[in-house]
Design goal:
Blueprint (H helix, E strand, L loop, with lengths): L2 E4 L3 H8 L5 H8 L4 E4 L13 E5 L8 E6 L5 E5 L8 H4 L11 H13 L10 E4 L15 H11 L4 E4 L8 H10 L5 E3 L4 H7 L2 E4 L3 H8 L3 E4 L10 E2 H4 L1 H8 L6 H11 L2 E2 L5 H11 L8
Protein backbone atom coordinates (compact mmCIF):
# COMPACT_ATOMS: atom_id res chain seq x y z
CA UNK A 1 0.00 0.00 0.00
CA UNK A 2 1.34 3.45 -0.95
CA UNK A 3 1.93 5.84 1.96
CA UNK A 4 1.58 9.59 2.08
CA UNK A 5 2.33 12.03 4.90
CA UNK A 6 0.44 15.32 4.87
CA UNK A 7 2.18 18.24 6.63
CA UNK A 8 -0.82 20.52 6.24
CA UNK A 9 -2.34 23.27 8.43
CA UNK A 10 -4.62 22.10 11.22
CA UNK A 11 -7.51 24.22 9.95
CA UNK A 12 -7.64 22.20 6.72
CA UNK A 13 -7.98 18.96 8.63
CA UNK A 14 -10.54 20.48 11.00
CA UNK A 15 -12.56 21.77 8.06
CA UNK A 16 -12.45 18.40 6.33
CA UNK A 17 -13.52 16.57 9.50
CA UNK A 18 -16.39 19.04 9.89
CA UNK A 19 -17.70 18.02 6.50
CA UNK A 20 -16.43 20.99 4.52
CA UNK A 21 -15.15 20.46 1.02
CA UNK A 22 -11.67 21.93 1.01
CA UNK A 23 -8.34 21.20 -0.63
CA UNK A 24 -7.59 18.43 1.90
CA UNK A 25 -10.89 16.74 1.06
CA UNK A 26 -9.95 16.84 -2.60
CA UNK A 27 -6.44 15.48 -1.97
CA UNK A 28 -7.79 12.57 0.06
CA UNK A 29 -10.37 11.80 -2.62
CA UNK A 30 -7.55 11.70 -5.17
CA UNK A 31 -5.69 9.04 -3.14
CA UNK A 32 -8.16 6.20 -2.53
CA UNK A 33 -6.56 3.21 -0.83
CA UNK A 34 -3.47 5.10 0.28
CA UNK A 35 -2.26 4.97 3.86
CA UNK A 36 -2.48 8.57 5.03
CA UNK A 37 -0.54 10.01 7.97
CA UNK A 38 -1.36 13.51 9.20
CA UNK A 39 1.62 15.34 10.70
CA UNK A 40 1.96 18.84 12.18
CA UNK A 41 2.58 21.48 9.55
CA UNK A 42 5.89 22.57 11.07
CA UNK A 43 7.18 18.97 10.99
CA UNK A 44 7.39 19.43 7.24
CA UNK A 45 10.70 21.18 7.77
CA UNK A 46 12.24 17.84 8.82
CA UNK A 47 10.38 15.65 6.32
CA UNK A 48 11.22 12.46 8.23
CA UNK A 49 8.54 10.39 6.50
CA UNK A 50 8.43 7.22 4.45
CA UNK A 51 6.88 7.15 1.01
CA UNK A 52 5.31 10.28 -0.44
CA UNK A 53 4.44 13.59 1.19
CA UNK A 54 2.85 16.98 0.74
CA UNK A 55 4.17 20.00 2.65
CA UNK A 56 2.61 23.42 3.02
CA UNK A 57 4.81 26.32 1.87
CA UNK A 58 7.97 24.38 2.72
CA UNK A 59 10.61 23.42 0.21
CA UNK A 60 10.46 19.68 -0.63
CA UNK A 61 13.74 18.02 0.31
CA UNK A 62 13.01 14.38 -0.50
CA UNK A 63 11.95 12.56 -3.66
CA UNK A 64 8.21 12.11 -3.84
CA UNK A 65 7.49 15.28 -1.85
CA UNK A 66 5.41 18.13 -3.23
CA UNK A 67 4.57 21.54 -1.88
CA UNK A 68 0.98 22.74 -1.55
CA UNK A 69 0.67 26.50 -1.81
CA UNK A 70 -2.38 28.70 -2.12
CA UNK A 71 -2.65 30.52 -5.43
CA UNK A 72 -3.16 33.88 -3.70
CA UNK A 73 -6.86 33.43 -2.93
CA UNK A 74 -9.06 30.60 -1.77
CA UNK A 75 -10.15 28.26 -3.23
CA UNK A 76 -7.18 28.18 -5.66
CA UNK A 77 -4.07 26.07 -4.98
CA UNK A 78 -0.97 24.70 -6.65
CA UNK A 79 0.96 21.46 -6.07
CA UNK A 80 4.58 21.91 -7.05
CA UNK A 81 7.98 20.25 -6.56
CA UNK A 82 9.21 23.57 -5.11
CA UNK A 83 7.98 26.29 -2.77
CA UNK A 84 9.46 29.00 -5.00
CA UNK A 85 6.65 30.65 -6.93
CA UNK A 86 9.03 31.91 -9.63
CA UNK A 87 9.91 28.28 -10.38
CA UNK A 88 6.31 27.03 -10.56
CA UNK A 89 5.32 25.36 -13.81
CA UNK A 90 2.88 28.16 -14.66
CA UNK A 91 5.69 30.72 -14.55
CA UNK A 92 7.37 29.00 -17.52
CA UNK A 93 4.23 28.67 -19.60
CA UNK A 94 2.82 30.97 -22.27
CA UNK A 95 -0.85 31.80 -21.65
CA UNK A 96 -3.22 30.13 -24.07
CA UNK A 97 -6.45 32.08 -24.51
CA UNK A 98 -7.94 29.89 -27.22
CA UNK A 99 -10.46 28.19 -24.91
CA UNK A 100 -11.31 31.04 -22.52
CA UNK A 101 -15.12 31.22 -22.05
CA UNK A 102 -17.10 34.49 -22.03
CA UNK A 103 -17.76 34.13 -18.29
CA UNK A 104 -14.13 35.07 -17.72
CA UNK A 105 -15.29 38.70 -17.72
CA UNK A 106 -17.57 38.07 -14.73
CA UNK A 107 -14.75 36.23 -12.93
CA UNK A 108 -12.48 39.23 -13.48
CA UNK A 109 -15.18 41.59 -12.21
CA UNK A 110 -15.53 39.60 -8.96
CA UNK A 111 -11.77 39.64 -8.36
CA UNK A 112 -11.63 43.35 -9.18
CA UNK A 113 -14.32 44.09 -6.62
CA UNK A 114 -12.46 42.00 -4.05
CA UNK A 115 -9.28 44.00 -4.66
CA UNK A 116 -10.83 47.47 -4.69
CA UNK A 117 -13.51 46.92 -2.01
CA UNK A 118 -15.80 49.50 -3.57
CA UNK A 119 -13.15 52.15 -4.32
CA UNK A 120 -13.21 54.11 -7.55
CA UNK A 121 -10.21 53.77 -9.85
CA UNK A 122 -8.33 57.00 -10.55
CA UNK A 123 -4.84 58.06 -11.68
CA UNK A 124 -3.47 60.53 -9.17
CA UNK A 125 0.03 60.87 -10.51
CA UNK A 126 2.12 58.57 -8.33
CA UNK A 127 3.72 55.14 -8.38
CA UNK A 128 2.90 52.68 -5.62
CA UNK A 129 5.80 50.51 -4.41
CA UNK A 130 4.66 47.77 -2.00
CA UNK A 131 7.85 46.66 -0.26
CA UNK A 132 8.61 43.22 1.07
CA UNK A 133 11.62 42.37 3.23
CA UNK A 134 15.43 42.54 3.31
CA UNK A 135 15.57 45.89 1.55
CA UNK A 136 19.34 46.11 1.09
CA UNK A 137 19.90 42.50 -0.06
CA UNK A 138 20.00 41.31 -3.67
CA UNK A 139 18.64 37.77 -3.58
CA UNK A 140 19.00 35.16 -6.31
CA UNK A 141 15.47 35.53 -7.72
CA UNK A 142 15.71 39.34 -7.86
CA UNK A 143 17.24 41.51 -10.56
CA UNK A 144 18.52 43.88 -7.85
CA UNK A 145 17.85 44.70 -4.21
CA UNK A 146 14.58 46.41 -3.21
CA UNK A 147 16.55 49.56 -2.34
CA UNK A 148 18.17 49.58 -5.78
CA UNK A 149 14.72 49.02 -7.30
CA UNK A 150 13.44 52.20 -5.65
CA UNK A 151 16.51 54.16 -6.73
CA UNK A 152 16.15 52.90 -10.30
CA UNK A 153 12.46 53.79 -10.36
CA UNK A 154 13.11 57.33 -9.13
CA UNK A 155 15.87 57.77 -11.70
CA UNK A 156 13.86 56.49 -14.68
CA UNK A 157 10.64 58.46 -14.40
CA UNK A 158 9.36 61.78 -12.97
CA UNK A 159 6.45 60.63 -10.79
CA UNK A 160 6.49 60.53 -6.98
CA UNK A 161 6.97 57.07 -5.48
CA UNK A 162 4.81 56.13 -2.48
CA UNK A 163 6.15 53.03 -0.73
CA UNK A 164 4.59 50.89 1.99
CA UNK A 165 6.17 48.37 4.35
CA UNK A 166 4.87 44.81 4.59
CA UNK A 167 3.04 44.28 7.91
CA UNK A 168 4.39 40.74 8.21
CA UNK A 169 8.06 41.64 7.75
CA UNK A 170 10.59 42.72 10.35
CA UNK A 171 12.82 45.60 9.28
CA UNK A 172 16.21 46.05 10.89
CA UNK A 173 18.32 49.15 11.47
CA UNK A 174 20.01 48.75 8.08
CA UNK A 175 16.64 48.78 6.32
CA UNK A 176 15.43 51.88 8.18
CA UNK A 177 18.70 53.68 7.54
CA UNK A 178 18.39 52.96 3.82
CA UNK A 179 14.83 54.31 3.77
CA UNK A 180 15.91 57.42 5.66
CA UNK A 181 18.59 58.08 3.04
CA UNK A 182 16.08 57.55 0.24
CA UNK A 183 13.64 59.95 1.89
CA UNK A 184 16.07 62.77 1.11
CA UNK A 185 14.64 62.56 -2.39
CA UNK A 186 11.51 64.78 -2.38
CA UNK A 187 9.72 62.37 -4.75
CA UNK A 188 9.95 59.44 -2.32
CA UNK A 189 7.58 58.95 0.60
CA UNK A 190 6.86 56.08 2.97
CA UNK A 191 3.10 55.79 3.63
CA UNK A 192 0.77 53.67 5.75
CA UNK A 193 -2.39 53.90 3.64
CA UNK A 194 -4.35 50.70 2.89
CA UNK A 195 -3.07 48.84 -0.15
CA UNK A 196 -6.49 48.99 -1.85
CA UNK A 197 -6.49 52.78 -1.56
CA UNK A 198 -3.01 53.05 -3.09
CA UNK A 199 -3.89 50.59 -5.86
CA UNK A 200 -7.00 52.59 -6.71
CA UNK A 201 -5.15 55.90 -6.93
CA UNK A 202 -1.74 55.06 -8.40
CA UNK A 203 -0.67 55.27 -12.03
CA UNK A 204 1.13 51.93 -11.81
CA UNK A 205 2.92 49.65 -9.35
CA UNK A 206 6.59 48.80 -8.95
CA UNK A 207 7.53 45.79 -6.85
CA UNK A 208 9.90 42.87 -6.58
CA UNK A 209 7.19 40.20 -6.70
CA UNK A 210 4.54 41.24 -4.19
CA UNK A 211 1.05 39.82 -4.72
CA UNK A 212 -0.09 43.46 -4.48
CA UNK A 213 1.23 43.83 -8.03
CA UNK A 214 -1.18 41.11 -9.15
CA UNK A 215 -4.00 42.88 -7.33
CA UNK A 216 -3.08 46.12 -9.10
CA UNK A 217 -3.22 44.45 -12.50
CA UNK A 218 -6.61 42.98 -11.63
CA UNK A 219 -7.72 46.57 -10.89
CA UNK A 220 -6.45 47.68 -14.31
CA UNK A 221 -3.14 49.19 -13.23
CA UNK A 222 0.18 48.29 -14.81
CA UNK A 223 3.00 46.66 -12.87
CA UNK A 224 6.79 46.56 -13.15
CA UNK A 225 8.29 43.49 -11.48
CA UNK A 226 11.94 43.35 -10.45
CA UNK A 227 11.95 39.67 -9.43
CA UNK A 228 10.71 36.37 -10.73
CA UNK A 229 7.15 35.31 -9.89
CA UNK A 230 4.44 33.08 -11.34
CA UNK A 231 2.11 35.93 -12.45
CA UNK A 232 4.71 37.87 -14.47
CA UNK A 233 3.03 37.38 -17.86
CA UNK A 234 0.90 40.58 -18.14
CA UNK A 235 3.45 42.76 -16.31
CA UNK A 236 6.64 44.46 -17.27
CA UNK A 237 9.33 42.12 -15.94
CA UNK A 238 12.89 43.32 -15.43
CA UNK A 239 14.35 39.77 -15.30
CA UNK A 240 12.44 38.82 -18.45
CA UNK A 241 12.50 42.05 -20.48
CA UNK A 242 15.24 44.32 -19.12
CA UNK A 243 14.69 47.67 -17.44
CA UNK A 244 13.63 49.87 -20.36
CA UNK A 245 11.14 47.41 -21.83
CA UNK A 246 9.78 46.49 -18.40
CA UNK A 247 8.96 50.12 -17.61
CA UNK A 248 7.44 50.67 -21.03
CA UNK A 249 5.12 47.68 -20.56
CA UNK A 250 4.47 48.11 -16.86
CA UNK A 251 3.51 51.79 -17.00
CA UNK A 252 0.51 50.90 -19.19
CA UNK A 253 -2.66 49.03 -18.15
CA UNK A 254 -2.27 45.27 -18.67
CA UNK A 255 -3.93 43.71 -21.70
CA UNK A 256 -6.49 40.88 -21.73
CA UNK A 257 -6.64 40.52 -17.95
CA UNK A 258 -10.00 38.72 -17.90
CA UNK A 259 -8.59 36.02 -20.16
CA UNK A 260 -5.33 35.90 -18.26
CA UNK A 261 -7.01 35.52 -14.87
CA UNK A 262 -9.20 32.69 -16.13
CA UNK A 263 -6.13 30.94 -17.54
CA UNK A 264 -4.02 31.55 -14.43
CA UNK A 265 -6.61 30.58 -11.81
CA UNK A 266 -9.29 28.48 -13.46
CA UNK A 267 -7.19 26.52 -15.92
CA UNK A 268 -3.70 26.35 -14.41
CA UNK A 269 -4.49 26.24 -10.67
CA UNK A 270 -6.57 23.74 -8.70
CA UNK A 271 -9.98 25.13 -7.73
CA UNK A 272 -10.82 23.21 -4.56
CA UNK A 273 -14.52 24.00 -4.99
CA UNK A 274 -14.73 22.59 -8.51
CA UNK A 275 -16.12 19.11 -9.07
CA UNK A 276 -13.08 18.16 -11.12
CA UNK A 277 -10.62 19.18 -8.37
CA UNK A 278 -9.70 15.64 -7.33
CA UNK A 279 -9.18 14.61 -10.94
CA UNK A 280 -6.93 17.64 -11.44
CA UNK A 281 -4.94 16.66 -8.34
CA UNK A 282 -4.57 13.08 -9.58
CA UNK A 283 -3.31 14.34 -12.92
CA UNK A 284 -0.83 16.63 -11.17
CA UNK A 285 0.46 13.86 -8.90
CA UNK A 286 0.77 11.45 -11.81
CA UNK A 287 2.74 14.04 -13.77
CA UNK A 288 5.14 14.27 -10.82
CA UNK A 289 5.69 10.50 -10.80
CA UNK A 290 3.29 9.39 -8.06
CA UNK A 291 2.06 5.81 -8.65
CA UNK A 292 -1.66 6.41 -9.10
CA UNK A 293 -3.60 3.89 -11.17
CA UNK A 294 -6.02 5.18 -13.72
CA UNK A 295 -9.50 5.71 -12.24
Amino acid sequence: MAEVTLYLPAHLREGHEAGQVNILSRILAALPGWQVTHAPEDAGERQAHRGFAITHMQEPRRPGTLCLRRAYWYPFWRLEPTNERWNFAVARQTPDYSTIPPRAEAFHARLRERVLAGRQVTREGFIFAPLQGRLTEHRSFQSMSPLAMLEETLARQPLPVLASLHPGERYGPQDHAALDRLAQNPRFRLVQSPAAELIAGCDFVVSQNSSVALQAMIAGKGAVLFAGIDFHHPAGSVPRDGLAAAFETGAAPPARMAEYLWWFFKQEAIDAQAEEASARIRARLTAEGWPLPRP
